[in-house]
Amino acid sequence: MMSDEQALLGALRELIDGTIQVTKTVKEIAVLSCDYNISTDELTTVRIYWQKDNEMVLAVMSGKVKVWPEYENRTFTDITNNLSIVILALRLSDNGTYTCVIQKTEKGSYKVEHLTSVMLFVRVLTNANTMSTSIHMTLLLLFSMPIKSDKWTEKTNSNRTDFPVPSITDLGNPSPTIKRIICTTSGGFPEPHLSWLENGEEVNAINTTVSQDPETKLYTISSELDFNVTNNHSFICLVKYGDLTVSQTFNWKKPEAHSSEAQVPLWAILLILLSGVFVITIGSCLAHRPVARWRRRGRNGKSMEMERISPIYTASVETAG
Fold first, then answer.
1. pLDDT score of 136 more than 70
2. Which of 26-40, 85-99, 115-129 has the lowest average pLDDT?
3. Residue 316: what are its φ and ψ, rounded to 5°?
4. SS (H, E, C) 259-303
5. pLDDT in tens, 12-23
6. Does 316 score more than 50 pLDDT?
7. How far is CA 177 from CA 210, 218, 226, 228, in A?
8. What residues contact 60, with CB distance under 8 A and at least 6 apart?
9. How far apart are CA 219 and CA 212, in angstroms?
10. Kindly report the CA angle at 198 between 196 and 199, in degrees rounded to 5?
11. How far is it, in rounded angstroms, from Cα 173 to Cα 227?
């Protein structure tokens, strides 16, 4: 459904050159009228041509319909509604001026019976601020350009859809000191270019990809960047399309250094102290055991020696007696 802002834009365009204007958004349906009626019986004697900027779109000859490849499976004609063509799933590339040509036989040859043009504007849905800006620019162009100026057609028919502000996402750490981030934006036109900047200078990115939706013709772009986490960084992801740019900033602050004491948990320190006390106690016990045995052996040895000496001493005393 056309918004009030789009209706106003269409009305302003009609004031300029009188051409029929149709304004739609991407993926909507456009009905372009040829503003001419015929009966079904006349289809065999009439040729109907629809073309866009001198390229064929659809033709009806001898009652048979032919659709050109770019519009195949999404374009058909409505004979009962002013010989209109209906275009489904609109794309940005559908922007342009469509011309309907009606030919009728006269004296054995076909001659132009009717000719009309319809200007189709296809845009992406925008917020109120963007649409208000578009209306403002349209008014400026309206009162600063001569009517039917070629510059008007050039500016209003330019295919450009604004990209949203990029988003930057953390992809983790490929290695302990390296972090990887990715910058992405989508839904814009024309083809964008993405670059990473730090301190005003471009830095090398990895895995930069650009893709285009085959139906809407809108672009998606993404790019990854690796950086060293041991330094502070401020990166700008800059996306340029046409003469416009959008950007996003990513700031990184290196982790703060901690003292060695703070890095060791308290429970670990206590465990180390207890282990030390235990080791000292065990060592002390083991060191005293050999001394005790030596002393016992010493006493036993002395006792045995005394036992051996005593009989000799006794015998000597008896002999002396």
1. no
2. 115-129
3. -65, -40
4. CHHHHCCHHHHHHHHHHHHHHHHHHHHHHHHHHHHHHHHHHHHHH
5. 444 445 578 899
6. no
7. 29, 37, 10, 6
8. 43, 46, 47, 48, 66, 77, 79
9. 4
10. 145
11. 10
| Token pair recorded at residue 270 | 């206590």
Planar angle of CA 138, 139, 142, nearest 5 degrees: 85
Q: Which residue has the higher pLDDT, 234 or 274?
A: 234
Q: Rounded to a whole number, what is the distance in angstroms from the first to the last CA of the chain? A: 149
Give the model's pLDDT for residue 197.
95
Q: Which of 4-13, 74-83, 129-138, 278-287 has the highest mean pLDDT?
A: 74-83
Identify the bridge partners of residue 183 per DSSP, sorted by sequence position. 168, 223
Alpha carbon 126 to its chain centroid, in Å, reads: 19
Q: What is the mean pLDDT of residues 175-190?
A: 94
Q: 3-state SS of 192-257?
A: CEEEEEECCEEECCEEEEEEECCCCCCEEEEEEEEEECCCCEEEEEEEEECCEEEEEEEEECCCCC
Calpha distance 148→59 (Å, rounded)? 29
Instruction: Look at residue 69 in the predicted model and tell me its pLDDT.
Output: 92
Identify the pLDDT of residue 285: 72
**Residue type for 145, please?**
M
72 pLDDT above the threshold of 80: yes
Burial 154-173 (b: 16+ CB within 10 A, else e): eebeebebebeebeeeeeee
**Amino acid letter, residue 66:** K
What contacts 87, CB < 8 A, 6 or more positions away?
29, 30, 32, 71, 74, 75, 94, 120
What is the rounded CA–CA span in Å between residue 67 and residue 182?
42
CA pair distance 274, 302, nearest whole angstrom: 43
pLDDT at residue 298 greater than cutoff 80: no
